[in-house]
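Project standup — Tuesday

K.O.: blocked on the structure for the chain from last sprint. Re-posting the sequence here as requested.
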Amino acid sequence: MKPQPIIKPTNGDRSSFLSSLGPSIIQPIKGKRKILPQNDFSIDSIRQSSKSNQQFNETLEKLLHERESLLERIDSLEGEVIRNQDLIANTRQQLSLINLSNQSEIQNYSENQSEEIEDGNFYQEIMHNDREEHNNGQLNIDIGGSNENNENNYSLNATEPLSIDQIIEKALILQPFLHDDVNLDSFFDTFNSLQTSEKIEFTDVSINQLQKIALCNDSFIKCKEYVESPQFVEVFQSRTQNIFRAYLDDISIFLYDPKSKEYSCTTKTLFMQVPLTQGNSILGDILAQQKPEIVTNPLQHPSYSSRIDKPFNPQSQPFLAFPIDTYALVMVRMNKEPFKYEDVLVAQFYSKLVVPLFNVHIQHINLFRQVEFRRIIHNFEVDLSEKNTFESLLTYLLASLSDYVGANDANLYIVNKDSFFTYEIEADQIVKKDYQKSGIIESIVNNKCEVEVEKLNKDTCPSYNESIDNWAFDKSYFAHPIFSNSVFGFSDKSSEKNQDSSENGNGSRSTKMRKGKAKSSLSIKQQETETNVSKNNENAKHVIGVLCVSDKSECNKFNKWDIDLIRTICNTLSLVIPECIKNDSALVESSDKAAAKQFTQTIKSFIFKTMEEPNSIEIIAKAIQSSINCEWLSIYTTHDISSEITKLITLHNDTVVDTNFLDPSFIRMTFSKHEAINTPDPQQLDGFKTIGDITSHAFLCGFNFENSEKMGIFVMNSKSGDSKFPEAFNTILPAIAGFIIISKFIRNQNQTISDGKSATMTMSNAFNICNSLLNDPDPLPKLLDVLKELLSLEYYSVLRINKLKSEFDSVIRSEECPKGHISSEDILTSHFGDLKNPMLINDFSLSDYCNSAIIDFFPSIKQLLICPIIENELYGLFAGKNIVSNYALLYKYFYSLIRIFYKTSLLDSEVKIVESAELNKIDFYNSKFTSDDIDSLSFDSQFFNNSQKEEILLKIFDKLSIVDTLETNVEQLAIFLLKVRQSYNDVPYHNYSHAVDVVQFLYFFLIKLSDVFSPVQQASIIIAGLLHDVFHEGLDSEFLKKSYSPFVYSYGEVSTLEHHHLSSSISILQDHLIFDQSDIYYNQIFWDYLTKLILATDITQTSKFIMVFHTFENDFNLENENHKLILAKLLIQIANISTCFRPFEISQKYVEALLQEINTQNEEAKSREIPITDIKPIKEFEISFIDEVAKPLIQCLIKIFPDFSVIEDKLNSNRESWDNYQP
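H.V.: unblocked you, prediction finished:
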């Protein structure tokens, strides 16, 4: 048995296999990665992920090698099982003869006259054998607990003569199966020394003991069939039940998890994962001692653990436990009969027998988990990238955490300035709730740590606080911080107004995500685990949130796979949460804002008309000044108090003035505090200062910070009699500020409507232009010309990424602009991937991009507009001097039209752009394929996708320097390979994958025969292998002849199909690779080899070729060009049937595909009433082909190059596998 090239379950589908591995296994989904780096932290995460993937690939390769060795070991153990079965059969035969003899003796036996043997001599012989076994370091197994005075322990070193029961207990017949140097002599000597009445009892017991060994062998054979199946443990458990006379429910199997270094086992109610180490439990002791043990009284055992031992043996039954190396531990509870010493010996034999099976099974599970883990991480990032609101995020997060890690409950806390806040989903509505900083969440934020406990409470986690952590009380729990390089500030008032929601006395839920009913769990106390953040987050300065999961479904705790997944989820959430906060901020409404809206409703009846006036702010400001009766009034606004604060208007005695009456530093300081002030003596205020000689005697200010736009109203010098401002204005002023914001919003909306009308006209014009260009043979350049004119710019150039060369090409441009290329690493183009909207560079010469090579694309640049058309692929650049102000609106309306014309016009007229889309999938320069991957006999092209196949072919062409030989370049060669792929039909066998397999096998030959063929000959050999079956329709030459195909009249009846392939190959080469400007176009050797090699692939001519080869094989001369051509023909014929020489699993797959193709041809023949020849069964078909075609061909090659005998060895191995094949 050899390792499969693809790791997958051998029985059952993928989902059933995942579910069998426990609640933590991740279900596969599909998708493409969309999340892009947004800051330094995300880049570090991606780099770490790349490093992790590289380590995973190295680990995977190592494990595959180990797996192959283990499977070979299992094969050798099969031989040992067969030898054991022979020994059992022979022993049974001898015991049968003994039974017949015993029965004869009993008939003559007299009850009054017992014929006794000399017990003393017999006893001495037994003791002598015991001492020899002990001195040779053989079997030495204790029974019972470790207490030496345990009355239930058995002693095998008695000093008195042994009774028949003691002799039977020694199980002498089992010794040959435990020790290679022990035979049955001791057993038969003991038998002969027994009295007649004892012989039958001794024989019957021995036969039963022998039967257990037979059951062990049967179990090994059966379990081997399921070693890579999810049913393996279940099958092993069932077989073990028969061996030890136990009920199925009384057998527990603890399977080792390499990731957590713990053991998992399923009880009747729970899937548990526990550590098994010496001293922590009875099971841990047995595993550490690596020998079977019978425990008769578990409660009195010194290592008994109520946490570990009790859940798996709640009735404290006597049990037998035996380790299977460190891979597993088997526990058999006594139910039917008491355990005997023979059970210990059988367990020892059984354990050693199945060790390699458990090793392979655990590695298979671990490999599969790693593959699925990375698959789910990839797809989680894809789905999460589209969640930009908490409503979509929380719903998706709930389902993901439930499905992927089995969490019945989860919380997402967002870190505010002085509190935590969450969004709870209630009746499909998002409700914000605040909690005081406390409990485990505060500990995580302060220490930048994660917390993992098996049961959450005050004892297991000292930082536990009921008010915030009670939702997860006494349940499995894991929490991990979410890091970011930036911190988000929130209003303190918001947290104060929502504080009451957290003080409900029963730990009310936050971001509540509950699924299912809490399962019963074990009372296991686990210390709080606080670990340092991963290296991935070392550069992150802030904790912006904490993700908590609790109550793992049907399991005692979250395992290491769950924890690693949650850590990765937290890394991804760090990119999504800030956007969710931004988009959902409008959903959180405070009571103050509601009051402001109510005030607006009260006053809008008499001043609503003013809100639509162009000078509405001036009208409202004068109404405020008149109402308050003040000398000075100013209104300021900002969207961010850390940036510029803008003055909207200043009034002095009902007149609009440009003069400021307050110092800007005082205005900024007051804005930063945004607290209402009403004082008759402003000089007492910190930092208060007026401008120039303006005097002050009363001051009032109020703010409205409830919207994204912050508004402040400043009033000075009351004109009332007492020179004071009434206290009522302390609350009215913020409300009026809110009203001004609304007025400003309405004014902006009016402007938007006006712009919309203008945009409608622009859009109408755009559609008219589009309609006029529909029948134009080249519409896209004209559309770009129109957009250029509307933008009031002079030039444009459209750049398309060429990933194969890591550069951008100018594919469409103004007449004045030159054609060119620019590196994707250029100071300007390197930022293209981050663009979501148009980017305007106002003065290119003074910008950070002034040294960019883009300057060579335009006659002159002052302003440069960069418009993304297709993300990461196509960008439009417009250059000129005076761009219009509504350029973003123009781009918005022309964007879709440009994309449509690009896809319907440019892609149809420029085939290379289509090809480029495929070329971009090929990563030749960063290829991960090594020489070992490409020149292996185990190569299987069906394992790779099409882009990877092209990458492999490019590697082969590069290794053999064919690119230089053909006077071409990598890009042109890649385009040629795409054309070749398109030239192969989708038939079961003679398809593109077959061509790649043939090329790889030819490469395997050529790297070992590099001095035999010239570069031109090598190039011709490889290209012949690549093209030899182009346009194959799954029909052979015989069918074409019988169906009177036009090909027969065109190419003749001999090698009809091969002549067709040759003609098509020459056409493809001359159209897409070898042009008449190159020397190779006129090279006679190249075309001569290509012609004769493609024709040599006619399998019906193989026998004639072999006869010709034998005529000169003894005089073969590599200096003879004709001999070299014969050798080349031999190589391509062997390569054409290369699947015969690959591992059996691969070979079988291709034979089945070939038979499927032949069956399809026969169906077609029947429909045309063409006579057909019945197909042999697959076994006979392939054996006949190996004997008549494959073996003679490879033997011809070995006569010239004996070093290739390894290929014949593989063929012989496959021949033997086919002999043993059972359909």
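K.O.: great, moving the ticket to review. The radius of gyration is 42 Å. Residues 40-107 form the longest helix (68 residues).
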